[in-house]
Design a protein that fits this description.
Shape: elongated
Helix content: over 70%
Radius of gyration: 22 Å
Number of domains: 2
Distance between the termini: 50 Å
Strand content: under 5%
């Protein structure tokens, strides 16, 4: 019974939330990596290609750090919102295929 509950929790948890939790666990190593990048930054100004690649790596690291510090409840709300957007898009596609505006009228508020 416990195994089934664990499986349900794993399946129901979105990939987005799993990614945020994983990045949260890497927060300290990511910050140390960023510190090393900041310290090595002056050395990359010698070669333009190295500087460009280094800038990309620093940008990706900064994004990963910002996700790692995100609140899990906030991340859960973002995941739920993205899920709702997919439902709305599916309804819109269905309405376009049947060439009916009924779905649009139900989904959007009218004054």
């Amino acid at each position: 019974m416990q195994l089934e509950e664990l499986d349900k929790d794993t399946v129901q948890e979105s990939a987005f939330l799993r990614g945020v939790k994983y990045l949260h666990s890497l927060q300290v190593p990511l910050e140390r990596f960023k510190l090393a990048l900041d310290l090595a930054s002056p050395l990359t100004s010698i070669e333009p290609t190295t500087s460009a690649v280094f800038g990309v790596v620093r940008g990706v690291t900064a994004i990963a750090i910002s996700f790692s510090t995100a609140d899990l409840d906030f991340a859960k709300k973002i995941g739920e919102m993205l899920e709702q957007l997919s439902y709305i898009d599916d309804c819109d596609t269905l309405g376009q295929r049947t060439k009916k505006g009924d779905i649009y009228n139900v989904m959007t508020p009218h004054p």
